[in-house]
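Table S5 (text form). Sequence records supplied for joint modeling of the two-component complex.
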Amino acid sequence: MSATRSAFSAQTDSAAAARELVAGLDGARPRAVVFFAGVAHDGAALGGALADRFPGACVLGCSTNGEFSDGGHGKGGAVALAISDEHVGDCAVALADVGGDLDAGVRAAAEALSSRLGRPIRALDPERWAGVALLEGARGREERINAALGDVAPFLPFVGGSAGDDITFSGTWAYADGRLSRDGTALLVAEMRGPFEVFKTCNFVPTERFVEVTRCDPARRLILELDGVPAVEGYLRAIGARPEELGFPLFLANPLGLVIEGEPWLRSVVRPEGEALFLACAVVEGARLNLMRATDLVAETRAALGRAADRLGGPVGGALLFNCAYRMLEAQIKGIEAQYHEALSTVVHAGMQSNGESYLGHINQTLTGLVWR
Amino acid sequence: MSTATHGSLEELGAAVRASVGGAAVFQVLNTRLIIQLGVDLKAPTAAQNRDAALVLRVEEALRRMGIKLGGQGS
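The corresponding structure-token record, covering 447 residues in total, follows.
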């Protein structure tokens, strides 16, 4: 039996959901408990119930666009993952206030983590330690939060996702350290006792063709020009589409990819703004963005988990997952949600449909996470 | 006004490699720089390589991360 346990609740009442999560994790002896819940839930009630039941564990969570686990998936309910002392040794949680001076908020959280662990997090060995970040996800600050995390712990990659709010971008919440914040980022640092890795996959592969960002406004996530022409014109020309086709289906099928060491870091188009393109992620001037070719969402996810198992040297024993809402929508539009979650459910897991994903930076249209043997 | 202490991104990249040691940690830093600044220290473009303003921006980013160059370790 896996030492990692997941629980699922479709309840929209927070007290009832908390009871089901606690019951679902019965018998677990976790060092860390991560939960995800619909944005209407009382995150403090859920986190408090889990912290009361597992007083020795680091408990953190955030709001979502939907929750999933190997026990079920839905929207407006709650899931939790209990990671046992077999997999995690020392760990610490903190809640970073990112609403004011963002850098100071992340620094303060890093100092709290370092103090609780008795050693600076920037000195932790990334071969043995993992970082998880549940980012405030409604205000477009994930690039700055990721950069601030890199400043405090440049060698310790935090993997995670942007909290969701039913894709309204009206407000999210995060819980850690016994507190709930509507403008915060929950952080977990954990010593892993066995093989683990950051998991990152998407169902797109780079083509040989690319466009260059010749003018942009990264703070507003706008591309103003591609290849020296207005961005909308450059994008349509590059992907071979007509202006009347501009819209969500076209954007969903044609993300752009920053390719690093052969791996794509997707940047999704959200909408045109005049002649500019508004993206779900900032890009910088001079960036070369590859056009991408779609692959099968379910088959690629299944294959990616298989590759992770190969690298780990055995079956994946547990996974904490952050799935882009665009991927959720693709599965819904194509009618393959059941197959998609069946593919994920070959491993014990819990996850959220996120407003964006994080690993060394902000990413779109990707499945990220932490997996262990 | 600050000026860059390295003459090129190639020179800066070599200093970072010497400072941080392993290839894996260098790749983590380099990925952060590519995402944040569009600079690949492993393969800077000809146009970027001797852009003093860009070299300074990368040096500042590394300083914020606490990366000490010149054989001082990190």
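Note: The first helix of chain B runs from residue 9 to 20.
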